[in-house]
Specification:
Length: 283
Amino acid sequence: MKNTSQNYKSAIKPVWCPGCGNYAILKSLQKALSELEIEPENIVTVSGIGCSGRFSHYMNTYSLHGTHGRAVPTALGAKAARPDLTVLCVGGDGDGLGIGGGHIPHAARKNVDLTYILIDNRIYGLTKGQSSPTTPIDKRTKTSPYGVYEEPLNAIAMLLAYDTSFIARISSLQMKEMVEILKEAINHKGFSVINVMSPCVTFPVLGYDTVRDLIKPIPENHDPSDKLKAMQLAYDDTKLYTGIFYKVQKPTLEDNLNKQIEDAVSVEDNQKVTVEELLEKYV
Ligand SMILES: Cc1ncc(C[n+]2csc(CCOP(=O)(O)OP(=O)(O)O)c2C)c(N)n1
Ligand code: SF4
Ligand SMILES: [Mg+2]
């Protein structure tokens, strides 16, 4: 029998604040997975630490609530060990762009086949409202009582610079579009990142009104392989463009590892040897 969204819900009831944008993301993800007909037992959800980190508890999949900033490398390890599984990774702006920011370029250059939902509420929600790498300049927060004095990161521009093979942005106000983007991202062979602009209602740096005012679909004629145009859209800070900025096909980590194993076992006079025979030489 076909799975419904319900089959991807765990028995744990979410404890996010009423109105948190994370509910829309959770629902959209569960719908996307049911429409893709991926069996729950073939999915792994890895999350970081933060309100967004609670995601893994709410998914009826293999799940791991990891450590702060280490969701991406943990998910990468899961995918490298079990390439047959669909690996999802979820984390916040603090988790992914602050403490864990150094992992993104490496996941991108390896082009590991996983889907990373980077939830951006422009604040540290769980720890009660400290400024994050995406908090706008001048914004007063618990850690910036006189206003933020640092430039915010531009996540899309950063992902483009790292040559991430699938880059999209959506918001918690756009569930229908989010389901479609999630399906495309999960189907993409390679590192796919969806930057979800998701209001935190308790420490409101990014409010629903701001999102509503700023979101605009990427023009229909945008060519997703046009990196320079994608960069231009990313840097237009009068808008929050939503949709697929960039998408290219290139070998994945799994492709490259398999090729190297193939090459290693067929060296030496073009003689095929097994991995076991090869290892014996070194023991
Ligand atoms: C190594 C480490 N440093 C700091 C913390 C404290 N901490 C927990 S969550 C968090 C930030 C969460 O912000 P974000 O990633 O944006 O997630 P959100 O809660 O907004 O979803 C911090 C600093 C921690 N758990 N571990
Ligand atoms: S503090 Fe903000 S991000 Fe965390 S659950 Fe509440 S509304 Fe959501
Ligand atoms: Mg956050």
